[in-house]
Amino acid sequence: MKHRSSPVLLSMLVLAFLVQGFLQRAVIFPQWKRDFNPGKGRMYTAAMSPDQILAVMAGFREITAGILWVKADSFFDNGNYDAILPLIRLVTLLDPNEIDVYATGMWHIGYNFTDEEQRSDRRYLPSALALGKEGCRQNPDTYELFFEEGWLWYHKIDDDYNQAVKWFLLAQAKPDMLPARKNLLGMAYQRTGEIDKSIDTYYKLYQVAENAYEKEGAFQNHQNRDTLESNLDTMLVRSVQRGYQASVRKDPLNDYDVYPPFDVGFSLKATVVEPRVIRFEGTWNVLPVGTRIRAVLRDADFPGAHGAELDWDAQDAVNLDPPRNETFMQEQLFVKNRRFNKKVDMSKDPTMYPFTKDKYILEFYYNPRSGPPHIQDKFGWSGDGMTDKNFLDTQVRKGQRVIFATLTLTKDQILRYGEWVDKIPVVKTKNYVETAPQSVSSDDVILKIPSLRSSSGGK
Amino acid sequence: MRPILAIASTTVGEAIRRRVLLVILLIGVLFIVVAPGLGILSARSETTVLRGFMLGVIQGVSCIIAVILTVYMIPNEIERRTIYTILSKPVQRWQFLVGKYLGAVLSLLLMMAMMSAVMAFVFFLQQQSKNVGEVADLMKGPMMYFVQMCLLAAVGIFFSTFLAPLVNFFLTVGVFLMGTFFNPLFQTLQENQNTVPFVKYFAQGVNTFLPNFANYNVQNPIINPTSVIQNEGRYYLGITVYGLVYICILLIIGILIFDRKEV
Asked: How many independent structural domains does chain B possess?
């Protein structure tokens, strides 16, 4: 028997083909591309095993990402931090909407890569920031990664606070931001020296918090309102006490804590006590505890390095492999009884401190904007109450009063090569005065009772 | 209509009695039950991993069931010669094929509904959530997967009208992989400046005419609720209509081929 296809059936078939083609091309694909494509065009990477690639090809991206993230957790438990990096990258490529993976990845890259003495490898920070920027681009509708990016600037980099403000403002613009987290913008404004904006921010947030509490007397609303009230109160008192309000009115500052400026008397000596081990000793005339002076040792030609910092914002693309042949060490020198004395051992981490270049720069930096409140009570938010006859600098951070000093060392000196095998390299500032050897053990240092109002500033 | 329904109900009965399908279903359910353990092991992403894993299991298991269920459907009837008994009665060949397909779809519906119910229960228990909306949101995934599996079953039935089960298995899985893979590939080709125009048009053609399974992978915004989706309902409606149209196409071609087949 010969079968003949019905022309009607064939016509219906052609019509159905055209309809599905139209639906696919004109209606479905544009929206799928915008809203449902997790990879945003990326299919898979060479870092996956064949079964993972197959799973991803078959559309099981999210489950693959989830399993990889569980695997990453086991590496966290084992302390195998290097193995986590490719997994973070892979998970964020497979599912760029995994906000927690981005946030955890930023924290991990920014905080967890440390040397034997728990100093962070700062060379990773541009990658952590780049990962955050990518996360923000992929998830523009939620505040979380904008906030995380701001937090990294505010807390980890602890400098360039205008960047923290920029990211906190972007986070603030998202409707889903948690009210309590908004308070940090007020703190960030204080650190940029924009006191009026800080007060203004607290006022506005307080108003919102008050309204929220009146609407719903829940515990968190009550707590948030009280926190903001306290912040605002403290801020107003400090703005008067530190002479800010007087300076706005152009009144004389004679009666305020920041006047006259206090000479911190910074001096320093750096001794290469052993190959790759440097002792920093020096003076800082501020009696109350809480001062941390930033010490940086870096290649003289480290790309983008300037004024005791790197060009943190240099990367837009995520590169999880920091420059292995470049050295950038950053440490905090804690002041006790007007002196600091710290031995920095870089001998156990050759990958972090490769010392491949010939010349090195030592930089010492103190910015009162990062200081604790009791120090700021004397120095002011922007260092109006602080001076140093040798090292006060207003250029290294444009318009800010900071303490900044540099010294140089050579590779031979740091590694104790050549003429330095038997000779101890010592570099120091011109004003450094040798005194009787100080005790270096933290156990036998007797702290004098700190005073918030030191009278040694010449008042 | 009665012969179609009779064949469909018999097919459902057969599917439920097939041990291999039940074992696969059981494995799927077990995976869903242990999923909270996996979520706990993931740093800061407990709910995300839990949702992703459970939806992935439902989709994966349903996919295997859909393929195994349909590739043997017509060849088994011919091999066991049961088709002669059926076709000797006043049953048209198209009615037989449509009945078989509906039976497969109903079986899939039963099995997927069971897995989805377990998922909803486990999620509810794990999250201690009284928010029914959250659970309902999660159910969007299996609903769209069901349409996806109906399309996959149609592909399997279509090939089973003229291919042996083993070849059909690989071909159906191959079509599923290509249909899933082509949307991202097409987008990559479209956005790549270096793509030769011919390749671009070829990819566009394939993407337009091959059954597109990637459309139904709607899990990402369900797993990550922070994503903002515009016209969500319109999209779901669009892909459902697309699926129905494509299923009709496959069944019509299948009927045309089956009609000519010597049995």
From this structure: 1
